[in-house]
Amino acid sequence: MANTAKTRKRWAAWLGLIPFLVFCLAFEIVPILLLVRDSLLLKHGGLTLSHYGDALAPLYLKSFINSIKLSGLTAIVGTTLGVFIGYAIYRWPTKRVQDFMVTLSDVTTNFAGAPLAFAFIIILGSNGVVTQFLLQYFHWKIYPDFSVYSFSGLTLAYVYFQLPLMVLLIIPAFAGLKKEWRESAFNLGADTFRYWWNIGIPVLTPSLIAGFTLLFANAFGAYATAYTLTGSRLSLVTLQIGFTIAGEVLHDPGIGQAMAILSLMIMGTSILIYQLATNRARRWTRR
Amino acid sequence: MKQKPSVSQILIVGFFILYMIIPIVATYVFSVAVRWDRTILPEGYSLEGYTTAAKNPYFFSTLRNSLVLSLSTVLVSLIIVVPTVYWVHVRLQTAKPLLDLLMILPFGIPGVVLALALVQVYNFHPLNRSAMLLIAAEVVFTMPFMYRSVSNSINAVDIPTLTEAAQSLGAGIRNVLLEVIVPNIFPGILSGSLLVFATVFAEFTLARLIVGAGFKTFPMLLVEFTRIDGTVAAALSVISFTVAWIASLLILWAGGKGVRSTQEVVKAK
Amino acid sequence: MAYLDLTNICKTFNNVVAVKDFSLNIEKGQLVSFLGPSGCGKTTTLRMIAGFELPDSGTILLDGEDISLVPPNKRGIGMVFQAYALFPNMTIRENVMFGLRMARKPKPYIEKKVDEVLDLVRLSNTSKRYPHQLSGGQQQRIALARALAIEPRVLLLDEPLSALDAEVRVALRGEIRRIQTTLGITTVYVTHDQEEALSISDRVVVMNSGLIEQIGTAQEIYRNPDTRFVATFIGTANEFHSVVTNENTMQCDNMTLTTDRVKSFSQGSRVVALVRPENVEVFDVKPSETRLNLFEGVIETLTFHGAITRLGIIASGGKHITADVNLTGRDMLAHHQMVWFSFRPEYCQVMPD
User: Fold this and answer.
1) What is the pLDDT of residues B149-176, one digit of tens each?
2) How far apart are CA C209 and CA B268, in angstroms?
3) Is any Cβ of chain B less than 8 angstroms from the Cβ of A163?
4) A 41-70: CB under 8 A from B
5) ipTM of model
6) Backbone angles phi, psi at C79, to 5 degrees
7) Cβ of B202 and A84 within 8 Å?
8) Which of A139, B219, C153, C289 gives a 20 to 30 Å CA spacing to A261?
9) pTM
10) What is the pLDDT of residues B50-89, one digit of tens each?
């Protein structure tokens, strides 16, 4: 009797999860699954991969290439610079400066979208303050080689929110490098280079991979910044899908669905790698 | 051992600070600048950007819409996410991997894809392109933030043991919840709520793509103005920042308070 | 009838038996320890007394009342946890007041009682502070005060000292015993530390794999272990796996052991004889008088423990023997030295192998 009571109790515990599960199913999982199904259906029924073929036709393939280039580039720049900035902050002798920098990163990484895009127009637009500064003091005319409304401008704007995110990710990783490892490495005859090459970098690698994939996904899924800055001047996947929804550009909804699923797969893979790398990093640096 | 930062450290951190601060400062200055496209410093200052913004018929309605949207999202999140996180931590540890998975999913779904999926499924009255659907989408979108804050604070205290301690001292379910559990995880709930609020307040993608003109939000107004009037757009940006600053400061304050009082309990485990 | 009566308690978790047929009577005012390795069921039993687990079968009587199914907040039982479990959001005073407020005691009574118990644990000066501002030992004393404030019928302590440093541990266990005897409160104390259990308890219950191995005073348990588990879990014992050869001898490899304790075993049966290290005498030269159980060996290890020195001896047959000797006033012993060792027949505990 006690056993059945216990089983009943366990079932009752699962009941408590139902509202949340229903919500997730209704507004996240089922719609996504239906999107997958629709992307594989012909207008009049029947399975097809033709939407995917269409979505990868030159016109739309260009948007995938642009998105991947933009995300990859800003993720590489963000990861690389972020590591150096993060290390400089981590080794900073005063705690107050460290705390300030972490807070700054915390705030600025959430500063994306329209305000960010507009801020970049203010400073780097054709009459922007930095544009003029460079022209007057360095006689460097950055236009028309550079344009804030193009790929190059978008790169600078994306790096703006990528950098602080990487800083926030990498500082705990540096903190996870135990002082004893460095000391015992030196004790065993290693020099600084050999310490980093044999211990520091291998231990940081999972964190670097995690950082890169998260930054990549972060840029790949971004919409608002690109929309504000480039409008329709630059073809990106998220912008294309947005046009499908808003009905601004007339094309087959199947193509939009296929593009959505393809970008979901790209983002999903990045996040999966991010999660695996994070788990690995956590296992190594657990205190 | 009082060290000084090295030159390269100062250069690197200095570069970072400049990169992070210049766009923000520029926006603040631009919002009060009279004309700033021919000179390094503005030619004059005025608050016209703000007064023009406030005169716009959409100014207060979008502000109100954004507030309603953010607060509703926080409320729904508090009702759906917080009890679930608590329940899984305390009663249903077996469901923890499932919860973790569901909470990481929104990170892997681009906003536009979520918008597309929801718009296509809920194409019927009264949900189609409604504020209600938008709230649901925002809840999904911000779930990971709420989850992290709340589960961090739940992990920081040993809830099962505190519950038993309270029970052994004669407390019933109600007293256990109100006097022991809620006060201890409140900082997490508070900072999660503020994070959700700030995120939704500035969120553009879902709002524009799910509802569009039918329920105009503050960021949508801002984007419109970037194409019409730069000074007003800057003024709106400044207002948007200010909301984000306040939320961030409150989060720091709430976070600092909770962590300190629970440190020792963590150490004891 | 005893004050706290546990009868045939059984508890199973996911088909794993945690406690089996546990019966115990505890007299009013006694301190009884549950001692055993982790997973032996001691904490589960304690939690059943507290009401956090319900027994699958069996009854728990407290002062004649069946409390087996009473919810934990209605049992009037105080509990102290390993991880202190002070409420981090409340001051020390608020923590101690908590149980009294739950019982809706009048305010003046609460104030008086709180002062009284804080005084009892000698921490009156901390009442305005928060738990994280106190040391582990202080926190545990507050937890004790908090449990005592409600004047519980029984006090339960679940490994209260295991999160603390060795020094604090010894001081605090004395404190616990002092308070317990002062108040005359019936107490159940769970620990895996034998020294702790032996030093503070009126009675010790040794448990293993969900079963009671032995119940007795500290001395009974140490001197006359009922089972081999008890003999080896508590203190150290040399084990001689032997075969009974006649009514007072047995054979362990090439050593013939003499003790009348084999009387109850039939010839040829396998037994194990247990001898505590402090009962093994060591001689540099062969003693002139005749001694039973006298053997030759070589000292392999010498470990200085202060009052005693622990010797590791290899007997001539190859068996390892541990002996504790007092080196004061005798010649130094050295590594690889040939020695003689012996133990009296009455110090052999014999039990089936």
Assistant:
1) 898 888 888 888 999 999 999 998 899 9
2) 27
3) yes
4) none
5) 0.88
6) -135, 140
7) no
8) B219
9) 0.80
10) 998 888 889 999 999 999 999 999 999 999 999 999 889 8
